Amino acid sequence: MSDHDAADRDLLAQRYGRVSAGGPAARNGRGVLVAVVIGVLLVTTVVGWMIVSAARGPDVDAELLSWDEPRDGVLTARVEIRRDADLAVTCDLVAVDVRRIIVGQLDLEVPAGPDEHLVVPADIPLEGDGIVPELRGCRPASE
Predict the structure, then answer these.
(1) Is 69:132 a contact under the CB 8 Å cutoff?
(2) List of residues 6+ apart from 62 with CB closer than 8 A
(3) Based on CB atoms within 10 Å of each CB, which residue in 46, 54, 123, 136 is the most buried?
(4) Longest Cα–Cα distance in the chain
């Protein structure tokens, strides 16, 4: 085969998109394939993360801020709640005595509303000498 035939073949291959093994067009095709595979993996990861986030349910976070000395059989505490807007929340509060025995309990119901961050007072009725409240947790009211 002459150099002229090889040059014609290369010219025709470039013109009509035929790829010779290991040529620049073959390397370009591999790059596109790698880019497509990476793109598909990225999209799959993002969609999977969104599905898991949605299945996890609404976020509720709460913290016991402060409390007052018990008066008239009631221990008053203030609870800071961070929630999704328009989500009703139920928080479980207890009062304990010096031996850490539960002497009062309250299911604090916080109705749905536009505020995502709020501080709510809670009056825990006592059946003993309660000295400190404990926040056991908060959850959406529907659970």
Answers:
(1) no
(2) 79, 80, 81, 82, 89, 91, 135, 137, 138
(3) 123
(4) 109
Domain edges within the chain: 3-56, 60-140
Q: Which of 84, 63, 80 is nearest to 120 (CA)?
A: 80
Q: What is the pLDDT of residues 57-77, one digit of tens each?
A: 667 889 999 999 999 999 999
- Cβ-based neighbours of 93, under 8 Å, separated by 6 or more: 64, 77, 79, 105, 106, 107, 108, 122, 124, 133, 134, 135, 136
Report residue 115: phi and psi, to 5°: -75, 130
Q: Which residue do the tokens 């479980």 mark?
A: 92
The third-level CATH classification (topology) of the domain covering 60-140 is: Immunoglobulin-like (2.60.40)
User: Cα–Cα distance between 89 and 140 in angstroms, integer?
Assistant: 5
* pTM summary value: 0.59
Q: What's the whole-number mean pLDDT along residues 102-111?
A: 94
